Amino acid sequence: MTDSATTPAAPRADRIFTAALVVIGDEILSGRTHDKNIAQVAAWLGVQGIRLKEVRVVSDDQDAIVEAVNALRVRNDYLFTTGGIGPTHDDITVDAIAAALGVPVIVHPEARAILEDYYATRGGVTEARLRMARTPEGASLIPNRYSGAPGICWGNIFIMAGVPTITAGMLDALTGTLEGGAPVLSETIGCWVGESEVADLLRNTEKAHEGVAIGSYPFFREGKTGANFVIRCTDADQLATCAAALSQALADLSREPVAGGI
Amino acid sequence: MTDSATTPAAPRADRIFTAALVVIGDEILSGRTHDKNIAQVAAWLGVQGIRLKEVRVVSDDQDAIVEAVNALRVRNDYLFTTGGIGPTHDDITVDAIAAALGVPVIVHPEARAILEDYYATRGGVTEARLRMARTPEGASLIPNRYSGAPGICWGNIFIMAGVPTITAGMLDALTGTLEGGAPVLSETIGCWVGESEVADLLRNTEKAHEGVAIGSYPFFREGKTGANFVIRCTDADQLATCAAALSQALADLSREPVAGGI
């Protein structure tokens, strides 16, 4: 953020920080564009010690955006949005979020200066381009090193571009600026086994290791059935203990565990 | 569906049919797994003449699933879910949806018969495998030609597997069984132009063609800026008229339109 940046803080072990993401765009809901931002934002949040709790994909429709933003911003530490902040008529995210917040839309002086600088050698700032300097009143900016037009931070809301490479640059600019908790660590153990054959083993292993969650993700390859078991925990020792126990239990069934997954 | 299948119907032009999708799974929210079902379900729905209005991604948590299912099932013609119907402890979708509906979970006799048949040569039905025969009371089944365990239909809710190839098989089994409206047709025109340069042109073209929506999707390739303009409309003639007008307007600016997109 270019001003009022949150002070980077050491991870806090005493509570869980959560985030939600609203993906805005008819192109996702029509199936034309395959979303890449959910996984990208999720992975980035994980490194910041923040858990992605919920995602909504909504269309380029003000009521839909307002509903999603207002539902999610109050029950999460952070709310991220992607999409709809370009210069064209279908880019309505800023207006919708301002409406959700009950504040006016202004032309942000710092954003205007950024665009004037960026477009100085690219034909100058036009009315359409100036749309990308509009923010809800009271916002700060998220730098965009790829294409000039900045992202927007307002309170706990982070409004980012939808083009995944530009989203990535904005996330990069935010790295280390948000308070988070202990990151969730994970270890994956793969096995050529049908998950139904080891369902009890998985349930019992999870139960025996408090604070640990085990997810089971089956796959079908080479005409065979396999699964990856993902163990998640914020404590490295507990994680290692559980991973060792699960590997041993699979080996005891003569099912070879594959560290790191298959 | 294996029983109470909806009668296939000719597209109805008199109203819009909508659907919502709930993607269930910690693996999506952790960033480990890149979702493929949103685009797949969206594209399939489009062909059925049904519009995907909204998507929620929620964790393997009963309260989160109940909230999403109950919010979306009442305001859409159809609700689809993916994920969480396997045999392991983290598969809680059936229990959560039954709770949302206020009905008990039963072992569905037809689903049990399918599993007994499928596992006859694969070690037999165990307690874990029988979990995949559980449905909310009053359900019918969606065939799964890949891995036995069926999907579930309850009222306007379609509960499908999360592994994308299995989801695809279930969608295939549902093809043509749901009532829909006129499919949204689309035409894409690409252009090596910054979208901010043609923002007014796009806005005016959309305004001049009622019932037509134009989306603008910028990209950055080969060191250059371009955009694809996607025109959407349920009427083929209106679509063609708008596409021709947009192409002509771009050509008038000496910006070569590329039919089909770039």
From TrEMBL, chains A, B:
InterPro entries registered for this protein in UniProt: CinA, FLAD1_M, MoaB/Mog-like_dom_sf, MoaB/Mog_dom
Membrane-spanning intervals of the chain: none
CDD domains, per database record: cinA (cd00885)
Listed SUPFAM superfamilies: Molybdenum cofactor biosynthesis proteins (SSF53218)
Full protein name: Competence/damage-inducible protein A
Ranges of residues in domain MoaB/Mog: 20-182
Species annotation: Novosphingobium ovatum
